[in-house]
Amino acid sequence: MAFDDHAEVVSVERGLRICLPAPEDVLYMFKVGSRIQARLVWVNPHEAPLDGEAD
Question: Which domain of life is it from (predicted)?
Fold first, then answer.
């Protein structure tokens, strides 16, 4: 989750929680080998869903 002054990452397993200055700072922590990489996904809750997507 990105906030104005920091980013929070909460894992769904093992109770991992990380607080960093920016969302991009988290990416390197979740790279595993050359085949698995984390990606940032930005969500705009005010944007209308695309056709066929649930609200």
Answer: Bacteria
The single-letter DSSP state of residue 49 is P
Burial class of residue 9 (count of CB atoms within 10 Å of its CB; 0-12, 13-18, 19+):
middle
- List C-alpha distances in Å: 6 to 21, 23, 28, 40, 46: 4, 7, 16, 15, 21
Tell me, yes or no, if the pTM score tops 0.85.
no
Q: Check the CA dihedral 26-28-33-34 and report its sign.
A: positive
Whether 52 has a pLDDT exceeding 80, the answer reads no
